[in-house]
Amino acid sequence: MGNESGEWIMHGMKWDNPDCIHSVDEAIKYINEFGFLPLFKNEIDGFSLEERTVPEYWWSDNPEIDPWMWRAIIARRHDIVYGKFFDKKAGFISKKWLPVFANYRRDGYDFDALYDDGKAPNKHKKIMVNFMEDNADSEIYSNELKKQAGFGKDGEKGFDGAITNLMMQTYLCNCDFKGWDVAVYSSIEHIYGYDYVTSCYKDNPQDSWKQIVDYMHEMYPEATDKQIRKLLK
Q1: Nearest 5°: CA angle at 174, between 135 and 137?
Q2: What is the pTM (predicted TM-score) of this model?
Q3: CA 57 to CA 63: how far, in whole Å?
Q4: Which of 20, 40, 47, 212 is deepest in the core (most CB within 10 A)?
Q5: What is the pLDDT of residues 105-132, one digit of tens each?
Q6: Contacts of 176 (CB under 8 A, 6+ apart)
Q7: In whole angstroms, how far apart are CA 176 and each of 28, 29, 76, 95?
Q8: Number of neighbours of residue 37 by Cβ within 10 angstroms
C-alpha cells in the first residue's frame, strides 16, 4: 500500500494469477511455508500479503475474500502471531520462526530481566505487568489496557508507541480483534507457551539474526542488506 499523488494505492494481482492467495486458509498455508510475512507492500518486492492478493477485495467486509478481515481471523486462531513486527508495521510470524525472532529481538531477555537491567522504560513495565505472572494468559482490549496501565489524559503518554515497541521486541501481539478494528492484546507466551517462545535463548542473539538474514537472501536474492535490516532488525 502506497501513497501515490495523494491517493492510497493497493498493489496485488488478478484472481486468476496462479500465485494469487484467494482465502484465509491459503494465506495461513503461505505464511507457514515461508515463515514470516509483512501485511503490506514494503521495499522488498513481493514480500507481503498485499502483493499476493486482489487489491479490489481489501476492505470489502467479506471474510471469504477480504485480506483485512483475514488478519483478524489469523490472529484469533492463535496458529500464527500477528502484530507490528516489521519496521513497526503489521505482519505475521509463524510458530516455527517465532523463537528465532524472539531470541534476537529480545536479546535473550525475558521482560522482567530486561527491566531490572535498566533496558526498558517504566511505561513499558506498566503495560507488561498486565501480562506477567498471574496475568500471563490475559487477553485485554486496547482501551482497557490503556486505563489499566495508567495512560491517558492525566497519566502516561505514548501508549500506542509503547505497544508498538513491545511488539517489535516480540513481548506482545494482537491475539484478536473486536468489531471493525478494536485490538485485543496478549503476550506471545500466551499463544505458544513460555518454554517454546524462549527455546532459542540458548543461542547467541546475533546467530539468530544471521539465520533470518541468510534465509531472506535465499528467498529474496534481490533484497539488499540495508532493506533487510530496515524491515527485520
Answers
A1: 20
A2: 0.94
A3: 10
A4: 47
A5: 999 999 999 999 999 999 999 999 999 9
A6: 72, 75, 76, 139, 184
A7: 16, 19, 5, 17
A8: 22
